[in-house]
Each structure stands twice: as structure tokens, then as C-alpha cells.
Amino acid sequence: MSVIFVLNGPNLNLLGKRQPHIYGHETLADVEVDCRRVADELGHQIRFHQSNREYEIIDWIHEAREEAAGIVINPAAFTHTSVAILDALNAFESPVIEVHISNVHKREAFRHHSYVSQRADGVIAGLGTEGYRLALRRIASLIKAAADK
How far is CA 68 from its chain centroid? Predict the structure, then answer.
């Protein structure tokens, strides 16, 4: 049973309360329950984290190097600003899937650039919180493909 880290960036602790017309009404706790259910169904465990602090996300990525078979990350606003998170992800050798609840390409121009996408093995955007479940399924298939080699 492999461990998958699910990492969430700034303001996602306000999910369900902040701009529900963009992000929906589900809370981050709802997302975590869904992720745990899907991970269990796939035979994996998850470590689910959220922080408004860039350094904590970087520390979790460093932990993932030793403990995780993959990372699902919604870096939120750090997507567009954090070379440090990109550098940490570049030191992680297993699959990474980037998730965005909203379609960032339909939003402000500054949201169209992602540092994380330069490392991610896939990007899911605009599918609401379902993107997390899809990302876990994709990570599981990449983990299985690597194990079958």
C-alpha cells in the first residue's frame, strides 16, 4: 500500500466559504473525505495537508521524497509565484499531478502561468473538486505502471 501526499496551498482552508461561485460549496474537509475514500478504493493511503505557508508545503514535498509514491498538489496562488515549490518538486522523483478547482485559463491573465506545471506529469483544471479524485486515479495508475516495469 503506497502513500500519496495531497497538498493544498493558501486559502484552500476557506473552500466552501470563499467565492463559492468560483470554487463551489464543498469544504476542504469534504475533499479530504472523498480523497480518502478513493485512495482506499485504489489500495493506497493518503497524507492530506493544507497550508497558507510556502515553507510548510516545501517541507511536505521534502518528506514525500522519503515517504510517498506520488503527490497531488493544488498549490493555489503559489502556482503562479513559487520557484521554491517548483525546485522542491524537481527533487521528487515520483509522479506529480497538479490540480486546480477552477479553470485558471478562463480567469485573470496572471493565473495562466504555472511554475508547478513545469514539473507536473499532468494538470487537471476546471473540474471542481472532482479533479482531486481524478488526480488520485491517475497517480495510482502511474504508480502501478512503475511497479510493473
Answer: 13
Which helix or strand (DSSP H or E) is residue 147 part of?
helix 130-148
Q: How confident is the model at residue 113 (pLDDT cuts 50, 70, 90)?
A: confident
pLDDT digits (tens, 9 = 90+) for 80-93: 899 999 999 999 99
What's the one-letter identity of residue 69?
A
Question: Which 3 state secondary structure label does DSSP give 8?
Answer: strand
User: SS3 for 47?
Assistant: strand
Give DSSP secondary structure letters for 76-120.
Answer: GGGGGT-HHHHHHHHT--S-EEEEESS-GGGS-GGGG--SGGGT-
Q: Which residues are catalytic?
A: 23, 100
Domains observed in the chain: 3-148 (3.40.50.9100)
pLDDT tens digits, residue range 39-56? Answer: 999 999 999 999 999 999
Ramachandran quadrant class, 51 (left: phi over 0; alpha: psi -120 to 50; beta: rest)? beta
| Residue 142 binned pLDDT confidence (cut-offs 50, 70, 90) | very high
Q: How far apart are CA 146 and CA 149, in angstroms?
A: 5
